[in-house]
Amino acid sequence: MYYTSTRDSSVKVTAAQAITNGISEEGGLFVPCEIPSVSRDFIKELAQLDYIGRAKKILSLYLTDFSEEELDYCVGGAYAAGKFTAKEVAPTVTLESGVSILELWHGPTCAFKDMALQLLPYLLTTSAKKTADGKQIVILVATSGDTGKAALEGFKDVENTNVLVFYPNDGVSAMQKLQMCTQEGANVAVCAIKGNFDDAQTSVKEIFTSDAVKAKLAENNMMFSSANSINWGRLVPQIVYYFSTYCDLLNQGKIELGDKINIVVPTGNFGNILAAYYAREMGVPIKKLICASNANNVLTEFIESGFYNKDRDFYTTISPSMDILVSSNLERLLYHLSGDNDAFVKDCMEGLFEDGNYTVNKAVYEKIRGIFEGGFCDDDATKATIGDIYKRFDYLCDTHTAVAVTVYYNYLQKTADSTPTVVASTASPYKFSPAVLEAVGSKEVNDADGFALMQQLNAITGVPIPAPLAAIQNKPVRFDKVVERSGMTDVVLDMLGIQ
Ligand SMILES: *Cc1c(COP(=O)(O)O)cnc(C)c1O
């Protein structure tokens, strides 16, 4: 299996090269040259395995340059007993007849990013051994909250790696800040910057591409790599859980082999739902992929009209991990749906860069309509849904999941499509306690003390506080540095001891 670039289909690299490099040289994203397909029997056999077994089977189709021992080591390490608090790793639970929830947040940081970021360090260090002859890998992350913590937790104490996270000092929640600043591990560092997320992201990109900094790293046998969702190593682990949820529905007797299901995904950068698209192309019987957005509804408009327009108001919502106007992974979908047309993708991306928008042609638009549905809802509807499904089903969900649930029930009402449906649940409700508390009817919600809020939510609902969040209370703050943007390069060199 080889990988090519969405913007230049003459590129041909191995999985290890795609994962080590992160992004193709001319700016395109790595995609598999061919999407492997599986038989009904393959799915039937998969259903007999545990999560680690399922992950190995799926990954072996994509990472053909990894030996069986390497895959055992990577997958076995990432999802080993005790790393995830649910023994199934990603359990599928029933909401009501015909509607299930795929819980992706039982990892160490209580958000779905763990599903990929627990595995990525193994994939990256194994890939680097093959392609980068023993260089030390330096991961720089700009985060608006969830990715930073999940990357720190994934890479902590991983040999031959360093991870350094920058976050906007006033741009993350109190709980997210605490999660990051109490991070343990000898190879990690966290630093706040004066500015917003875009400032952090722009500066990280500048450091990442600075010839002077890169030369300094090279002198010390180090290289940069990336842990964000454009890296193929973050996408491929996510395909596994869409197979896994289908197997679980089979085992629960909810469907028969071959029955179609719908999948609903709360979407930001389009990585999670793109993984579901790959699962569908590979042969998981999926009818519709339903893309759910918050008030930042650029994707809903795109799916309905074929017109992508990022020039619009940006809203800060109670589902912040979906507050995004440029969904990077959409580029991969455009490549596949256009019949591997790199010139077409390049045109679209140039349009986006220069004019803030692009329109796809009729053929691509019709393919999108055949596979995807889009929908969105605002914060009031999100909170109403959290309260409603808590009352009706005694199930507590977070704000992102609630956006997806809202969009699903709107879709059901509009279409009466009674296909069994799985909603991807992307975070523990305790990560977003203030909004969830309000939604379940608490009158006094004060954002200042994250722990008091968790305890209040626990007292009202009886839902247990996830152990990793409860444990933070007793951990010392290790990182409290705040710098100007101009000071970020020094922070990087300092941390690596190569000033
Ligand atoms: C990152 C994130 C999302 C969005 O996922 P994408 O792959 O970027 O579409 C949704 N919910 C939560 C809680 C997240 O952390």
Salient structural properties:
499 residues; alpha/beta; Rossmann fold; six-stranded mixed sheet; binds pyridoxal-5'-phosphate
Compose a concise summary of this entry:
The chain has 499 residues and is of the alpha/beta class. The protein has helices at residues 15-21, 40-46, 51-62, 68-78, 113-117, 120-131, 146-155, 174-181, 197-209, 211-219, 232-251, 271-282, 298-305, 330-337, 342-355, 362-371, 379-393, 399-415, 433-439, 450-461, 467-471, 488-496, and strands spanning 3-5, 8-13, 30-32, 92-96, 99-103, 136-142, 161-168, 188-193, 222-225, 261-266, 286-293, 307-309, 357-359, 372-376, 421-425, 482-483. It has a domain at 88-111 and 233-430: Rossmann fold.
Question: Topology, pairings included?
Answer:
Blueprint: E1 3-5, E2 8-13, H1 15-21, E3 30-32, H2 40-46, H3 51-62, H4 68-78, E4 92-96, E5 99-103, H5 113-117, H6 120-131, E6 136-142, H7 146-155, E7 161-168, H8 174-181, E8 188-193, H9 197-209, H10 211-219, E9 222-225, H11 232-251, E10 261-266, H12 271-282, E11 286-293, H13 298-305, E12 307-309, H14 330-337, H15 342-355, E13 357-359, H16 362-371, E14 372-376, H17 379-393, H18 399-415, E15 421-425, H19 433-439, H20 450-461, H21 467-471, E16 482-483, H22 488-496
Parallel strand pairs: 5-15, 6-7, 6-9, 7-8, 8-16, 10-11, 10-15, 11-14
Antiparallel strand pairs: 1-2, 1-3, 4-5, 12-13
Helix pairs in contact: 1-6, 3-4, 3-11, 4-6, 11-12, 17-18, 17-19, 19-20
The structure holds pyridoxal-5'-phosphate (PLP).
